[in-house]
Recover the amino acids of this structure.
């Protein structure tokens, strides 16, 4: 079984999610859309691979808006079309934050600014905690999706829809992949000021993440195992 992770920037590693897929026997490939050299000029061209080469696709988060065609349209619009193609072929997709918003757009939903940012550990209301546990999950986003036609919403909170299912795919607004090292990278790449602007202490948020990390990893494992067996319905390899 082959899984493809689409990393949109150089400071958003695949973390707990790819770690667990490898433990489950997946061969994992990772592609990077915007290199570190292009981070401040991200409207680059990018050629996405044939989705038929993969049994699972995981588009990750990004610091840009999934609605911002002017800023990143050279690769954003092709990626939306690519995801739409994968969905039409019934290839399972796990969309994480920005990646979940791309699924929404590919299905005809709208993505726009949320009424306020969500940064930090957040409990959500889940209709199916055996698939999407209530958390807390780490969030770092300014936008939210409009639920597309045909999607089944699974979780939400007072700010945004937090998870939806479409056929064999799942979109989540939070970051199940997050590790302490990931957050440290985000804080160094402009995130510290974003946290301060949100009225929070970045060092306290980092300490909270370090304390939460091992339990959060177990939540991620539970989510992934339920997704793989119940939603993606993949015959899991053994090694």
């Amino acid at each position: 079984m082959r899984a493809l992770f689409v990393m949109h920037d150089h400071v958003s590693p695949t973390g707990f999610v790819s770690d667990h897929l490898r433990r489950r026997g997946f061969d994992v490939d990772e592609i990077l859309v915007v290199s570190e050299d292009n981070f401040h000029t991200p409207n680059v061209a990018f050629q996405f691979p044939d989705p038929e080469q993969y049994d699972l696709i995981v588009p990750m988060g990004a610091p840009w808006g999934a609605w911002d065609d002017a800023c990143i349209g050279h690769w954003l619009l092709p990626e939306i079309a690519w995801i739409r193609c994968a969905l039409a072929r019934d290839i399972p997709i796990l969309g994480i934050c920005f990646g979940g918003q791309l699924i929404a757009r590919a299905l005809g939903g709208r993505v726009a600014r949320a009424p306020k940012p969500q940064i930090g550990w957040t409990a959500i209301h889940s209709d199916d905690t055996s698939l999407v546990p209530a958390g807390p999950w780490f969030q770092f986003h300014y936008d939210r999706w409009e639920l597309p036609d045909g999607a089944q919403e699974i979780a939400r909170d007072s700010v945004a829809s937090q998870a939806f299912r479409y056929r064999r795919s799942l979109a989540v607004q939070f970051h199940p992949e997050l590790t302490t090292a990931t957050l440290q990278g985000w804080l160094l790449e402009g995130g510290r000021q974003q946290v301060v602007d949100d009225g929070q202490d970045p060092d306290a948020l980092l300490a909270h993440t370090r304390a939460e990390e091992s339990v959060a990893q177990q939540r991620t494992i539970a989510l992934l195992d339920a997704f793989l067996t119940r939603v993606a319905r993949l015959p899991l390899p053994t090694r």
